[in-house]
Write a structure and sequence with these properties.
It is a single chain. The strands form three sheets. Strands 1-9-8-5-4-2-3 form a seven-stranded mixed beta sheet, sandwiched between helices. The chain contains 13 helices and twelve strands. The two termini are 22 Å apart. The chain has a domain of 231 residues: 3-Layer(aba) Sandwich (Aspartate Aminotransferase, domain 2). α1 packs antiparallel against α8. The protein is 35% helix and 12% strand. The protein is α/β, with parallel strands linked by helices.
């Protein structure tokens, strides 16, 4: 094995990786057409309504409600489910902050569950242990595009009357047991932020098969209006979370490629897992799929075992991997409950919703402990999904770089920084 690039050797790869977002001329044309038309608002244009229908149909849902971000998709989804003051909502500890802060924005209290070591998804035993009489909903995250076991989750929550809002922000096109994620619970929330597998810079959507949830979500998104009623008649204290026609046109253009790109990532991700499976100190967090499953691979996560890598730190391993031409990141550096907003209860006036008179529970996030989430935050390396949009030889480059760095860890550990 040749000398590590970080120590002066030749890197495994010098070619660039596929860019993301990868603006295409057809995307430019779609947005330019809207700009030229002057129909920039969903009330006068056609793209937002068409996108809602197309996106919902792709995810096997009857209804789609487009909003201006994934965070607002979660907030509106929760409120459409009836979540509010006095309620608790179970969320995983290892995820983006919006999964939990959307609960605060809905004036309810997030309760953290640990995650599974093999999947990084919510641990259902941990979730069961924090259910109380105040639990109104649970937000499972299909993290890194890996579907949660929705069958077990429904069996656990349905008898208790606990609603399921899927956080599918990283899971466009993911499939669980032959069905797309998003409408396997009561509703699902997606993000179209720039890094996402389907993106428009910003944006989000709620999908559902429930007519009433869809109607409430649409009203909350659009100033409390009700379809078919007068424009200045407002039935809810709603928000203006609408999506622009330019975003919708861009998303419709990009949706033409979503299925093919999802399948390409799927095949390359499984190929990479096979390539990395025998390396000491490196554990792809990519479990064998169940029958009819397909991961969407927003991220490709790898757990490092420092004791098998000469004791080098994750940061040093990533430096060496980047020097070989493989971009990577550490991802979430702490479980959500260790962020200052939760440690300091920095929520709103007088500490609401925890201090809300409707809330009968007691929460101190400083005492929360989710050991698996803590461990993952220290040991996981992420590869971003654009690396999986290459050819088999590109995947081979990733595998060779991992092999080279793991083989050279002893020398790396002996080098002074």
């Amino acid at each position: 094995m040749s000398r590590l690039a970080i120590l002066g050797g030749e890197p495994v790869r010098t070619k660039p990786w596929p860019e993301w977002p990868d603006g295409r001329e057809e995307d430019v044309a779609a947005v330019a057409e809207v700009v030229r038309s002057g129909k920039w608002w969903s009330y006068v244009g056609e793209h937002t309504g068409e996108f809602e229908g197309e996106f919902a149909a792709y995810h096997e849902a009857r209804h789609g409600v487009a909003v201006n971000s994934g965070t607002t998709a979660l907030q509106v989804g929760l409120e459409a489910l009836g979540v509010g003051p006095g309620d608790e909502v179970i969320v995983p500890a290892y995820t983006f902050q919006a999964t939990a802060t959307s609960v605060i924005l809905a004036k309810a209290v997030p309760v953290f569950a640990d995650v599974e070591a093999e999947t990084m998804n919510i641990d259902l035993k941990s979730a069961a242990s924090v259910i109380t009489a105040r639990t109104k909903a649970i937000v499972p995250v299909h993290l890194a595009g890996l579907p949660v076991d929705m069958g077990r989750l429904r069996e656990m929550m349905a008898p208790r009357g606990i609603a399921i809002l899927e956080d599918a922000a990283q899971a466009h096109g993911a499939v669980w047991r032959g069905r797309k994620v998003g409408a396997l619970g009561e509703a699902g929330a997606f993000s179209f932020q720039a890094s996402k597998n389907l993106c428009a810079g910003e944006g989000g959507a709620i999908v559902t098969n429930d007519d009433d949830i869809a109607a409430r979500a649409a009203g909350l998104r659009d100033c409390g209006r009700v379809e078919g009623r007068p424009f200045y008649e407002h039935h809810l204290p709603g928000y203006n979370f609408r999506m622009t026609e330019m975003q919708s046109a861009l998303l419709r253009s990009r949706m033409r490629h979503l299925e093919a790109e999802t399948q390409e990532r799927w095949e390359n991700g499984r190929r990479l897992t096979e390539e990395l499976s025998g390396l000491a100190g490196v554990a792809p967090l990519d479990p064998t799929p169940g029958d009819g499953d397909r991961r969407a691979y927003h991220l490709y996560p790898v757990q490092l075992r420092s004791e098998d890598l000469g004791g080098i730190t994750r940061e040093r391993f990533m430096e060496a991997l980047r020097a070989e031409g493989i971009p990577c990141t550490a991802g979430y550096g702490r479980p959500l409950y260790r962020n200052p907003v939760f440690q300091n209860h920095s929520f709103g006036p007088k500490g609401c919703p925890i201090s809300c008179r409707h809330y009968s529970g007691s929460v101190d996030y400083r005492s929360v402990s989710c050991p698996t989430a803590e461990k993952l935050c220290q040991e996981v390396v992420w590869l971003l999904h654009n690396l999986l949009l290459g050819r088999p030889e590109d995947i081979a480059d990733i595998a060779r770089a991992f092999e080279k760095v793991t083989a050279g860890c002893g020398e790396l550990a002996g080098q002074a920084r």
